[in-house]
């Protein structure tokens, strides 16, 4: 019978000839991968383990199972190469039976070096190197359920809801010999499967009918069946595998959105990266569990597990909690003509290893892959992946997350079964209201196409505060305003099948250098260390949860320069009452957002109450702005005074206040702005904007923007002298 042994202890880590004793999981970029923008270590390191021959019976096989090694590796035992693996986010195994001796030296040679064949190579997140998930030693009988096919467990369970119940199709692939395979479903019964040794793969299959199935019904009732499959050979029990599955049915309607088990079920989703502060991606089970608890506390019912395969334990949590999952491979940002085989192997691994998870509703082909344009090789790669999805899984959707610059008439848009767009109107470009127009236009032009929003968000750093928040200021208050708008927008458009906030948590993006806190993407509504919930978290809680709460916004905006300040409250209650210094001020009725204007002249205690729930904070009136509320002391300003100096303007000539269209209408202006935009794109999102192809629709939107606004909102952080230098150049160019 199979024996599975955790192998996380007693490893030696070797980096640049320096040895260190470690316990797995482990990454060598836990610190330098989060502090940017200086390059983090991307190279080759070695993990070594000395072990004795395991106790094995004659004919048994010995496997090593790696749950995640980023991103390429070679396994050597006693200086003999056993196997290699490309792809940093999936399980793979090595059959070491023929290589082990009485004393053994195992080496895992791991590389996260840049290359042109393994995805991801360019993306807005850190590519941590290391063996960052669990490792197991597996000893099996010579006859066992398959361990060699793309890291799966050999068991495939396919539920189908029928008019009179549910049919459960079971397929079990195995190695060696078997004369009986038995499947047992708890609460249902046993089924002897039909054994066939014909063809390339040995297969046992059968079907079980359940008359009154207990459905997996999302958050309301995420019921799972437990299945046990046992393999016998000549009366001997050789192997046994346990798994869980859920009976459910997904559907997407272009007009009415997402359906679960025949009922409309709007997907209120968040996206999640797997890393956290000072740990990198070497998370413990407790950390995964904390992430799930935080996501559910905000009321989400769906998660986009970006941008790669996540830990099996987290998929298990999604099954158990009733979370609907978007699963994807890291085919991202820039297509590589030399990377096709890797996209295929990573897709086969994703589906094979996760086939039985009840929570997963789709297999996503790629994310924002069209940054540098659409080529025939890119299109063919996607057609191949789309066919693989439907060949391997007849029940789930193929999907794709499109870059907001991709033309909506591109053949890529309709290629998969469902799709989403990643839109950042209101942050990188345009205003929040442009999201409304985009969806209305898409739905009008493509009424038969199901559309979702797979990314949207705005960065904020929690110490940055403002009474007059504006796009590009990185304040907690602007991020909250942005998400207020987005939630209102969703509520009026039921045809949007799902929305995925980018991001639930801040995460490492080593190339970024923004808002005085480099190396991170700050779009999370919870901080990187999971210790602080931003105000935006609570506006989602107000829309998506029913357990009563009230939340006072801008608690971190303590020192206030205005004489009359806004007190804003988020709540899922219908009325809230405000108290200042113990005195009742006002009761307001409404939904989600409640605003009060309060005169302040000293230190004040603010309290908000609704029935049995309350929240409190302290604020103080001050004479000068607190410099800690800005991304750098040089940016301190008085929000209520006009600037002493305005950018110079000259009639008939361009200036920094001219729109992009006005500047580009003049050849000299266009030449200048083309160089400037290249520099600006290279700074956007940690360099992700470099080499981007901008669509005509996006160019039209940008054309309406004054240059000064693009500078302020584009993350370039130019000082007054640099802005004046740009303006002086434009002042010498006549308008047309």
Feature tags:
single chain, 736 residues, alpha+beta, Jelly Rolls, Immunoglobulin-like, TIM Barrel, 5 domains, eight-stranded antiparallel β-sheet, eight-stranded parallel barrel, 43 strands
Can you give a write-up of this model?
Helix 3 packs parallel to helix 4 (about 375-390). The chain is globular. Helices cover about 20% and strands about 35% of the residues. The protein has 13 helices and 43 strands. The model has no long low-confidence stretch (mean pLDDT about 95). The strands form ten sheets. Strands 13, 14, 15, 16, 17, 18, 21 and 22 form an eight-stranded antiparallel beta sheet that branches. Strands 26-27-28-29-30-31-32-33 form an eight-stranded parallel beta barrel, surrounded by four helices. Strands 3-2-4-10-7-8 form a six-stranded antiparallel beta sheet, with no helix packed on it. The protein has five domains: about 5-140, Galactose-binding domain-like (Jelly Rolls, Sandwich), CATH 2.60.120; about 155-245, Immunoglobulins (Immunoglobulin-like); about 250-545, Alpha-Beta Barrel (TIM Barrel), CATH 3.20.20; about 560-635, Immunoglobulin-like (Sandwich), CATH 2.60.40.10; about 660-730, no CATH class. The longest helix is centred in the middle third of the chain and has 17 residues, at about 375-390. The protein has about 725 residues and is an alpha+beta fold. A hairpin with a 2-residue loop joins strand 39 (about 575-580) and strand 40.
């Amino acid at each position: 019978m199979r024996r599975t042994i955790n192998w996380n202890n007693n490893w030696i880590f070797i980096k640049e000839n320096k040895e260190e004793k470690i316990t797995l999981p482990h990454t060598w970029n836990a610190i330098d991968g989060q502090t940017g923008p200086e390059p983090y270590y991307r190279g080759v390191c070695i993990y070594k383990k000395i072990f004795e021959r395991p106790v094995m019976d004659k004919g048994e096989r010995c496997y090593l199972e790696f749950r995640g090694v980023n991103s390429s590796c070679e396994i050597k035992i006693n200086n003999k190469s056993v196997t290699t693996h490309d792809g940093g986010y999936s399980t793979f195994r090595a059959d070491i039976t023929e290589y082990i001796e009485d004393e053994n030296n195992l080496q895992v040679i791991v590389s996260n070096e840049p290359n042109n064949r393994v995805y991801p190579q360019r993306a807005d997140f850190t590519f941590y190197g290391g063996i960052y998930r669990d490792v197991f030693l597996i000893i099996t009988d010579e006859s066992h359920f398959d361990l060699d096919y793309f890291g799966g467990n050999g068991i495939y369970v396919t539920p189908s809801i029928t008019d009179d119940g549910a049919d459960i199709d079971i397929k079990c692939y195995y190695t060696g010999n078997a004369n009986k395979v038995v499947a047992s479903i708890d609460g249902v019964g046993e089924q002897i499967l039909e054994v066939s040794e014909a063809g390339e793969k040995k297969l046992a299959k059968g079907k079980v009918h359940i008359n009154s199935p207990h459905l997996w019904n999302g958050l309301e009732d995420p019921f799972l069946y437990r299945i046990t499959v046992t393999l016998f050979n000549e009366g001997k029990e050789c192997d046994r595998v346990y798994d869980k599955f859920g009976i459910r049915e997904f559907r997407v309607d272009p007009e009415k959105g997402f359906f679960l088990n025949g009922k409309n079920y709007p997907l209120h989703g968040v996206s999640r990266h797997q890393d956290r502060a000072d740990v990198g991606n070497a998370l413990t089970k407790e950390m995964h569990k904390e992430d799930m608890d935080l996501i559910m506390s905000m009321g989400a019912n769906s998660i986009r597990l970006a941008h790669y395969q996540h830990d099996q334990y987290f998929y298990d949590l999604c099954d158990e909690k009733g979370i609907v999952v978007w699963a994807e491979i890291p085919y991202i940002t820039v297509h590589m003509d030399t990377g096709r085989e890797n996209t295929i192997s990573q897709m086969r691994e994703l589906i094979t290893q996760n086939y039985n998870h009840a929570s997963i509703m789709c297999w996503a082909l790629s994310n924002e892959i069209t940054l540098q344009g659409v080529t025939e090789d890119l299109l063919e790669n996607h057609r191949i992946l789309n066919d693989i999805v439907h060949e391997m899984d007849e029940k789930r959707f193929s999907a794709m997350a499109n870059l907001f610059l991709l033309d909506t008439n591109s053949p890529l848009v309709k290629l998969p079964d469902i799709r989403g767009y990643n839109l950042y109107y209101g942050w990188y470009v345009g205003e929040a209201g442009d999201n409304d127009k985009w969806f209305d236009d898409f739905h009008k032009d493509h009424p038969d196409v199901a559309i979702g929003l797979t990314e949207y968000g705005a960065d904020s750093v929690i110490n940055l505060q403002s009474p007059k928040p504006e796009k590009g200021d990185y304040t907690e208050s602007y991020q909250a305003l942005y998400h207020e708008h987005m939630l209102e927008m969703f509520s009026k458009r039921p045809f949007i099948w799902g929305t995925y906030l980018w991001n639930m948590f801040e995460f490492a993006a080593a190339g970024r250098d923004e808002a005085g806190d480099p190396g991170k993407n700050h779009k999370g509504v919870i901080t990187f260390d999971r210790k602080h919930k931003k105000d935006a978290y609570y506006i989602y809680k107000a829309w998506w949860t029913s357990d009563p709460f009230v939340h006072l916004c801008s608690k971190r905006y303590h020192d206030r320069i205005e004489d009359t300040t806004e007190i804003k409250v988020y709540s899922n209650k219908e009325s809230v009452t405000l108290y200042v210094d113990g005195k009742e001020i006002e009761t307001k009725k409404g939904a989600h957002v409640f605003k009060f204007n309060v005169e302040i002249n000293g230190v004040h205690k603010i309290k908000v109450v609704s029935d049995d729930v309350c929240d409190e904070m302290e604020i103080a009136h001050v004479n000068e702005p607190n410099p800690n509320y800005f991304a750098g002391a040089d940016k301190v300003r008085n929000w209520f005074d006009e600037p002493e100096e305005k950018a110079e303007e000259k009639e008939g000539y361009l200036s920094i206040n001219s729109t992009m269209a006005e500047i580009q209408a003049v050849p000299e202006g266009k030449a200048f702005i083309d160089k400037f935009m290249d520099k600006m794109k290279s700074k956007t999102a940690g360099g992700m904007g470099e080499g981007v192809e901008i669509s005509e629709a996006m160019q039209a939107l940008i054309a309406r923007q004054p240059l000064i606004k693009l500078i302020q909102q584009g993350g370039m952080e130019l000082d007054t002298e640099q802005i004046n230098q740009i303006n002086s150049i434009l002042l010498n160019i006549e308008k047309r």
